[in-house]
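A common beginner's mistake is to predict each chain separately and then try to dock the pieces by hand. The better habit, illustrated here, is to supply every component at once so that their relative placement is modeled jointly.
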Amino acid sequence: MRRLPRSVVLAVAGCLAVSACGVTAQGRQETGVRNLTMVVGNSPGGGYDTMARQIADVLGKDDIAAGTRVVNEPGAGGTVALQQLVNDGGSRAKVMTTGVAVVGAVVTNNAPVSLADTTPIARVLEEPMIIAVAADSPYRTLDDLVEAWRADPRGITAAGGAIGGPDYQQVMLLAKAIGIDPTTVNFVTYDGGGELLPAILGGKVAFTASGYAEWADQIASGSIRVLAVSGEQRLSELDAPTLREQGVDLTYTNWRGFVAPPGISEDKRARLVELFDQLHRSPEWQRVLERNGQQDAFSAGPEFEEFLDRQQGLVKSILADAGLR
Amino acid sequence: MDVWQQLAEGFAMALTPTNLLYAALGVLLGTAVGVLPGLGTSLTVALLLPLTYALDPTSAFIMFAGIYYGGAYGGSTTSILLNTPGESSTIVTAIEGNLMAKSGRAAQALATAAIGSFIAGTIGSLLLVVLASPIASLAIQMGAPEYLSVMVLAFVAVTAVLGASRVRGFAALGIGLMIGMVGLDPQSGQQRLTFGVPQLIDGLDIVLVAVAMFAITEALWVASRLRTAPEEAIPVGRPWLSGRDLSRSWRPWLRGTVFGFPFGAIPAGGAEIPTFLSYVTERKLSKHPEEFGTTGAIEGVAGPEAANNSSAAGSVTSMLTLGLPTSATTAVMLAAFTSYGIAPGPQLLQSESELVWTLIASLFIGNALLLLLNLPLAPAWAKLLRIPRPYLYAGIVFFAVLGAFSVNTQAIDIALLAVIGVLGFVLRKFGFPILPVMMGVILGPEAELQLRRALQISDGDVTTLVSSPMTIGVYLVIAVVIAWPLLRWLVGRVRRATGDRPDVQGDRRS
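With all components supplied together, the output reads:
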């Protein structure tokens, strides 16, 4: 029913922000990619959809590529679109959005195809994740939470989005890092922020792992307290220590990027990589990222290919640890 | 009073020609979107977000609110005339509304829906003004056990009025629950009844099932009888509500409003449960129970239509007071707030009081515009039914397929539409009621989710289900509903024994 991606609020907001700023063209050389189709395996308005639309906008404004088109093929967290991409002959310029949630959905859904069947193009951004509790929660610090969690693994409920998604992975990795058996972790899924927020505020669940930007307003107003950020470094806009600083040997970030159909020519692949490289160098794109509370994380070629491979392995091992596969 | 003065200022702001124009545009768009199955108001608002960037926030929100309210109106029009619910909140309306349309009372059904929506929307907006903060705290107190108890109440209440055959009713409920089961188990990620088809992993769309069960089934039903039954023309009847219609409608309008508002305001409430509850309440209380399921009872349209509009008002309340998106549409509207640099939340009423009061005022205006738009149109819409049946149903099937396809743009949805339509036809042929099927599809997965979430949070302790005053209260109401026939009999006996003349029934009739 109300299956709205939790990130929709932020996402659509960012979308608006983009259209806000008229920007002068940079006079860059075109990559020769025209009429690129960006397939989004999720509904309009969600995080992936917004990223694709924002990028299409920047590509057009900065004359990197003309006529970019965003197409939604929602279903099973991106699995349906991935299957269609793998069966695509690759005759037209086409890329599909991907990221932690898509990798997670594909593995969790036991899909017959995987991201290994695609041509990896580039990772474009990272989103910091946080561990957060309600302002009136008894857990003042990460140590409080870890101590309580170790004492009663079943009694401490973690909450977040879908099984296999970024929130889920973050919780399972944290549990493992502090010596809790992931099979005992009590992870409660919530469809959208609409139900998760009151569950946290009302003390129905102990804590949540989530993207920072989704709760930025609640954090600013003081109704939600951040115990830790999970990236390498602290966030400039947030006075909260990293997991590492608090003695937990774990860094984790959500990321998003693009893959293309299998079997496209080297030339085609190089031109698509060049396109995202130019996007990465666009000041306009950097402004969009900053507004969204996201970070540039451009990576392409063999480096991204290996990264993607490790990511799939990571999701599989997390699900195996939790006893789901 | 301060509140009323602020509201008056809001009206002054909202009544500028420009804002009126945006309100009118919003309600027109909303009505159009509501009429077309599959095109939801949330998607419409999402797609319009970039377009409205050039607008100032007030005008944009006035338009969005118009779309939201308009969608609830438009959905009922197709439910009544074509038995094709455009939105999940108008599924219940189709049941009695379409029967009324077939007995020549389409104009009355449309009119009672329009006026009921207006009254509920207006009262809901008033409640928004006075009840904002208590509702906000209710939303935070509601947890999985509380939601589950309310859903059990809906199940029991609808089952209690299943109609002639309880066995068929329960069987229909089972089929609905099975359809609702298709997809990914939300707590473990296991697939259920997907047969390896990835498009089924997200489950079946409610609007798709409703359109198949109502519109396709109806078309097949009519087609199966075209040769044997003479084509009796649908009588057109009187165009306006009679005094008798009004006197039968006003109580359901008010009761529906009371049902809808709190459900809209809580995160997992939605517009569907209150429409079910309103329907069964009206069916129980009606003085014309014989019209339910036969010629169509006006109470069965008036109540649910009021309920779904007051639920929309409740959603807006949560959005404005808590920053809580309790429906998909309000979630997208919240995104718009954020993009204007306005932080939704408890401070909103203070920090952006002018915008909020203008928006609230525009809700009243939008409702009035919708009534002006829909009431005169009712007799005109009703004439649509004069189209010869083969053409009319060809058109219905066309729109049903279009709607099913537009939900996800997947060809498989058209196949599903056909399969479920045939299933619906078979059910109808053998006298199974459709309402329990739809309730199973809509509430089954939600109830399962809340039950499992409650048990997961309590780590398997079932006493969590009756651990709060609210859950105990709701289960007591359920007990009364179940024991009602027995209670009534007992009360009647006691009264007769003591010589009291008026019995329970008599009290209500007086």
